[in-house]
Fold this sequence. Notes:
The structure holds two protein chains of two kinds. In chain A, strands 1-2-3 form a three-stranded antiparallel beta sheet. Chain A has a two-stranded antiparallel ribbon with strand order 4-5. Chain A has a two-stranded antiparallel ribbon with strand order 6-7. By secondary structure, chain A is mainly alpha-helical. Chain A is globular. Helices cover 53% and strands 6% of the residues of chain A. In chain A, a hairpin with a 2-residue loop joins strand 8 (480-483) and strand 9 (486-489). By secondary structure, chain B is of the alpha/beta class. Chain B has helices spanning 98-105, 119-127, 162-170, 186-199, 202-207, 211-234, 263-282, 309-315, 326-347, 405-414; strands spanning 2-6, 9-13, 38-43, 59-60, 78-82, 136-139, 149-151, 154-155, 288-292, 350-351, 354-355, 360-365, 381-384, 395-398. In chain B, a hairpin with a 2-residue loop joins strand 7 (149-151) and strand 8 (154-155). The longest helix of chain B is centred in the middle third of the chain and has 24 residues, at 211-234. The radius of gyration of chain B is 22 Å and the shape is globular. Classes of the chains: A mainly alpha, B alpha/beta. At the A-B interface, strand 1, helix 6, helix 9, helix 10 and helix 11 of A face strand 8, helix 4, helix 5, helix 6 and helix 8 of B.
Amino acid sequence: xxxxxxxxxxxxxxxxxxxxxxxxxxxxxxxxxxxxxxxxxxxxxxxxxxxxxxxxxxxxxxxxxxxxxxxxxxxxxxxxxxxxxxxxxxxxxxxxxxxxxxxxxxxxxxxxxxxxxxxxxxxxxxxxxxxxxxxxxxxxxxxxxxxxxxxxxxxxxxxxxxxxxxxxxxxxxxxxxxxxxxxxxxxxxxxxxxxxxxxxxxxxxxxxxxxxxxxxxxxxxxxxxxxxxxxxxxxxxxxxxxxxxxxxxxxxxxxxxxxxxxxxxxxxxxxxxxxxxxxxxxxxxxxxxxxxxxxxxxxxxxxxxxxxxxxxxxxxxxxxxxxxxxxxxxxxxxxxxxxxxxxxxxxxxxxxxxxxxxxxxxxxxxxxxxxxxxxxxxxxxxxxxxxxxxxxxxxxxxxxxxxxxxxxxxxxxxxxxxxxxxxxxxxxxxxxxxxxxxxxxxxxxxxxxxxxxxxxxxxxxxxxxxxxxxxxxxxxxxxxxxxxxxxxxxxxxxxxxxxxxxxxxxxxxxxxxxxxxxxxxxxxxxxxxxxxxxxxxxxxxxxxxxxxxxxxxxxxxxxxxxxxxxxxxxxxxxx
Amino acid sequence: xxxxxxxxxxxxxxxxxxxxxxxxxxxxxxxxxxxxxxxxxxxxxxxxxxxxxxxxxxxxxxxxxxxxxxxxxxxxxxxxxxxxxxxxxxxxxxxxxxxxxxxxxxxxxxxxxxxxxxxxxxxxxxxxxxxxxxxxxxxxxxxxxxxxxxxxxxxxxxxxxxxxxxxxxxxxxxxxxxxxxxxxxxxxxxxxxxxxxxxxxxxxxxxxxxxxxxxxxxxxxxxxxxxxxxxxxxxxxxxxxxxxxxxxxxxxxxxxxxxxxxxxxxxxxxxxxxxxxxxxxxxxxxxxxxxxxxxxxxxxxxxxxxxxxxxxxxxxxxxxxxxxxxxxxxxxxxxxxxxxxxxxxxxxxxxxxxxxxxxxxxxxxxxxxxxxxxxxxxxxxxxxxxxxxxxxxxxxxxxxxxxxxxxxxxxxxxxxxxxxxxxxxxxxxxxxxxxxxx
Lengths: 575, 438
């Protein structure tokens, strides 16, 4: 009964105030096109729907969602989020198992209050709140409910139940009574939404599948969320939510129309960036250490720019130019900022009119240059996979195998005598290659080192920060390498070998499916085979791979239905 | 005299009647409640050189070995356990991880099997439920990694900035127990009611999820209850605590942020953390804390040097005269000095008839016995402090080939847990070290 009253109040508020607010970003879209979704009666959760998965928002997603929903001037950038857990090479897969800790909860609460405070501050309230309170120092339930129903829909990607809207309206009202300020009450309620499990854990809801009795399927909003997180790295926009509400996403035609629209959107760049940031493990930059006495150029700006360089290279190659994925290891085109010019000791023309240090220029590596090896020759790869003070062919080789080829390299065995490798000042072993060769003379070490070192040795022309070098400790560097029997010289040779290796292709297909479903891709999955075929047929175009994944049955597949049935039965009994 | 803060400036306020805070025998507060017991873990990877830290003599009044000399003045408060093992139970030795899995979790690290809760969270459930923070985690080497976890998927992130930790403990939400007056902040009430609103959704959500997600929701709602409790405490006038003084914000101004692994900077940040944690304990903001000086495969380094601590352990030759790797020894000496800094900080605060250290039980722990080969037999382990009289101290216990999880069992039992065993497989401990239990 109370729920109905709130709904009535919401409708009234919205009809009165519609058009009054000029909202930023998605909020603006929602005003015109989402009213029906917002106000339509919501299915009762008592009716056999179950939560089949929960994916904790990553820091990156949280920030993107806040920026998209409330506009670029509202930011969660200063927030300290608890770290994710990487499973099977992806934080996205870890997100489906990671919890919120007590310390983490405390941090989420602080971030939520910070963001909510910005949304309702004097600078933003007139654009982001769709109505004005009747009195500034009194609760206004109708206005608060209108705000929460829209904010909730956009942030959580599904309409709030009337009882939820009422709950936040009541919390806002109580808060306003204490603070004597409508907006601080509103801010308290919004902080609650940002802290709620609906927002942070993104529950994925399954409902009985009308086409297959006894089976379950993801509901429309959960499908919309999987699509938007995968392709755009943010929440669904108004049209996608509409497609979710109308049942369009349950039809192949409707789904394909939405997927094609999403692939054509500029937001695809955000999705591609997020996917590769996860696959290439760029989160590790946050804790990457370099010896500042030796490498003062590798400062905080450089840490930012080396990631941006690789992401720009990838987006330009894979999205803007829509070229072959395998060429990312051989491409000669990249981008440099003045900061990177200093790091790499390459000339960068930064004489821009405004003198901004953020200016990026495109840069063509000469074809015959040893650095003509795409992202392999960038600090985003060779710098990330190096200890603070020196290069490590072992770590780099392991990274190539695990990250780019999706193979597992066993951890070093215990109780191994490492003393066969002497320190860097040993006159007998000047270069890393020589020291590692000595190490590999031990049979117990040789097994694994043979798998990784010859790959990493091909990247020895790059020091720990990714700068090109010809010598180490005055000895010339021999950058010959080997990958599974194929011998080559230097980064260019390795790039070519990776380009030609079928594992490079299956790896990115495997990762894309796992990233999209946020679950480990099953090895025997037919879906993977089909995706690989489609990827090859497209000439290894990433947007085509993403399209294949988005339209694959595997994307919306849920765990075994009988187990879900049990939850549903228990849930119904508990009602 | 009580040191307080006004607009960031340290001032001293004379408070009368301070002596009334303690009961006549000095072991309890004036309201009759006993001085709380505290528990901490202190971790640094790569262990100590075998044969150089174990006292030769066994039992009380043992002779501290030269390597541990920096701790000599604390000998009577330190128990050293030698000969203890982490058993692998047929599982591979995951270097730098298998040791801590047993020391802090009581179980061999088993692929595909979830890690059990860490010791500190179990102790916190016994002694940490009434303070503002159930526990505080810090990492002195620029990482959020801690060894504290409530479950495999709920790993407590560590704070690596002393300034941020200062703000978290002594910032705007801090209520000084010794402040003359107290006004509840209405904003806290509002935050509390928002949490209640979320809490109301709990039952509805739990009905709709399977077992795995239920556990994750439980973690979430444990976090929510923890914060609710913080806010509840902030809304009440805290009882006065004589030992509590509020450090000035300037005490953390020397935070080092440039290179997180430079050993001098790590030690400097550790000193700041040690001071902050000691004050947080004295002001009863927490009763449990976890310190990581630096991680298992420690990257501690000297400026401008190509090899770090970890690399030295594997690649440096043993000096025949010294009997150990000289650079490794140098780093280990710094570690012992850092541990001393922690003990000095805790021992420097008088509380009742002793010091904060006396009312604490601190567990020194590490990942390996001999880092050079990643061995995990005879992993060094020590306790410091009597836990407010719960254990005897100043004893060297030699327990060759016994399960190292016995230390964890003993700690849990003296901290009030009713368990009779802890751990699994060969690491399952059933016998506490009764010779030290009071």
